[in-house]
Write a structure and sequence with these properties.
By secondary structure, this protein is an alpha/beta fold. It has helices spanning 41-49, 63-70, 104-110, 112-118, 136-144, 199-213, 225-231, 250-259; strands at residues 6-11, 32-33, 37-38, 54-58, 84-88, 122-127, 130-131, 150-156, 166-171, 174-180, 189-197, 235-239, 245-246, 287-288, 293-295, 298-299, 304-305, 308-310, 313-314, 319-320, 325-327, 330-331, 336-337, 342-344, 346-348, 353-354, 359-361, 367-369, 374-375, 380-381, 386-387. Helix content is 18%, strand content 27%.
Length: 392
């Protein structure tokens, strides 16, 4: 029996505005994570280990940041003569399908003709802003064995956070109710932005929904498509009990980085049978110099530590000078913390410089400093500061 033909569409075009300064000059999927990775590495590594070689990446906002990282797809075994990685930028067309997308369902509708030509047996649509490991092929096999039009991968979320997601009610495997970002969630069972669709019926349904929506458009998958499939009894749930964290806010981004500092992290990023791959290897070994002290932290290649680092993630090229202290923080590539400075519960973007004796953050809300910013020597940024300040 021939294996099913599977197409994975990775949605990497969103602005990620809730990530604030971290996504001003890069797409959310290109945000660094756990030192050496980017968020998009997780779905691409899942594709690789699931044995799926046809992967399309839809880009729109700050596409160069994603294109530069993915290159030809080699780290994920997607640099192939036939199939492999294909980028889907916005395009001009003689039809009304050209132009910029206004949501995930709208983006799927704009690529409908290309998907029909490819003729997959299953279409897997995934976001690229969450950290998890999942065998997509296993989900596809369960979907194809059912009569569902869509299989939604579900997970349990914190009750205080549930209104950020599509929330479902489930009877066995059947999804009986779906509400997108409800004000008062009925359950804490959320879709984790991995969907397996039957391409023909789904694209046909999208065409009708597009006609019905008129000028309002299709918006996101959760606005019209998933509710319609659920109402018609065509939605199925695949329960996922592993670690999954959506990095939709600065707080969740900081917390996810902290999760990977434990002696037994929630995901083994170097697991022999399922390593998370990335484009890297351009830095020398990390060095701890002079009186440098490290405790419970991640150090990437090219880092130089002469100060005190505790409970923090240091990306490639970070320098912590003598007498400086970095605690419970995430430092992205090229950050320099000068002598005597203190950084606590902060996220510092690319190439930030913290001047001598400066104090950044402390107990309280996460402090965020945008890329290329220099914090003056001896100055103080109170907890929760956003620098530069967002435009109003």
């Amino acid at each position: 029996m021939a294996l099913p033909k599977i197409l994975v569409l990775v949605l990497a075009g969103g602005k990620g505005s809730r990530m604030q300064l971290l996504t001003e000059t890069r797409a959310k999927p290109a945000v660094p994570f756990a030192g050496v990775y980017r968020l998009i590495d997780f779905p691409l590594s899942n594709c690789e280990h699931s044995g799926i070689a046809d992967v399309w990446v839809s880009v729109q906002y700050q596409p160069q940041s994603v294109n530069e990282h993915l290159a030809n797809g080699r780290p994920w075994d997607l640099d192939r003569t036939t199939g492999g990685l294909m980028m889907l930028p916005p395009f001009q067309s003689g039809s009304d399908r050209g132009g910029f997308t206004t949501g995930t369902a709208d983006g799927l509708w704009r690529q409908a003709e290309l998907i029909r030509q490819f003729a997959p047996d299953a279409l897997v649509v995934v976001s690229s802003d969450a950290v998890y490991k999942l065998d997509y092929r296993e989900v596809v096999e369960g979907h194809l064995a059912s009569d569902a039009e869509v299989t939604m991968v579900t997970t349990e979320v914190d009750p205080d956070d549930a209104s950020r997601y599509g929330i479902v009610q489930v009877d066995g495997e059947r999804v009986t109710d779906y509400v997108y970002k409800p004000d008062e969630p009925a359950t804490t069972t959320a879709t984790n932005e991995v969907f397996v669709f039957s391409p023909g019926p789904t694209l046909d349904r999208l065409e009708q929904l597009a006609r019905d929506a008129g000028e309002d458009g299709l918006e996101d998958l959760g606005n019209h498509l998933l509710p319609a499939q659920t109402r018609d009894g065509k939605a199925r749930a695949h329960r996922f009990d592993g670690y999954w964290r959506d990095l939709g806010t600065i707080e969740s981004y900081w917390q996810a980085n902290q999760d990977f500092l434990s002696a037994e992290p929630p995901i083994d990023l170097d697991e022999a049978g399922w390593p998370v791959h990335t484009r890297g290897g351009r830095h020398s070994a990390a060095r701890v110099l002079d009186d440098g002290q490290i405790e419970n932290s991640l150090l990437s290649g090219g880092t130089r530590v002469s100060g005190n680092v505790r409970g923090s993630v240091l990306s490639p090229g970070v320098v912590v000078e003598a007498g400086a202290s970095v605690t419970d923080s995430v430092l992205l590539p090229g950050v320099r913390v000068r002598a005597g400075a203190t950084v606590t519960r902060a996220v510092l973007d690319d190439n930030v410089v913290i001047g001598e004796g400066a104090t950044v953050g402390g107990d309280g809300d996460i402090t965020l400093v945008g890329r290329e910013t220099e914090v003056e020597a001896g100055s103080t940024l109170v907890p929760g500061t956003r620098l530069p300040e967002p435009e109003r």
